[in-house]
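User: My instructor asked us to take a sequence, write out its structure as tokens, and then describe one feature of it. I'm not sure where to start. Here is the sequence I was given:
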Amino acid sequence: MTAEVSTIHPLGPTTVEDWLAEEQPSDGSRLELILGYLYMTPAPTGSHQYAAGELFVALREAVKAAGRSDLHVLPGVAVRISTAFRTGVIPDVAIVAAGIDRTSYEPDELILAVEVWSPGNTQKERDTKVAGYAAARVPYLWIVELPKGKPAQLWGYRFGVQGYRQEVFVAAGETVEVPGPVPLTVDTSTLI
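Assistant: Let's start with the prediction itself. The structure tokens for your sequence are:
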């Protein structure tokens, strides 16, 4: 007896091109595309933006210090993760190996994605975005969580032969070297 298993996921009606043509909300919310469905996340909170801003500045300075004119640090840019799976995301901070005069980037141009999770990000959305980054083989991924009344948490991942491998986890406001395309030490107590 054999069993047939379907590996086809019903994709939503929206294509990556449709998503890119959509106007982003003027209130700071973010419109992303997950498996063909548009997802609107609320505008990031001040603490979310502060953490993302601190990481942006630290990364920009690290890229400059390393003399890497081929890399650019950008906040909140569109990345076409998968045309076939109709997925496009907007990481909070990105390092790209491409010019800055564009509105979106290919997955192979994304070197580091930084996601600062907010309460508005569902577990399903989080899992899907991480799986999308892994499917696109993005070399580095950082996840930052800002629990109320506690130090920022930071996970640092590097893509390897079998997917993402966690190299760093910080939960108590420590200073740690994070995996990435350039050397960088992050004091997580400054993220909150």
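For the description part of your assignment, you could build on this observation: Helices lie at 16-21, 46-65, 123-135. Try explaining in your own words what that tells you about the chain.
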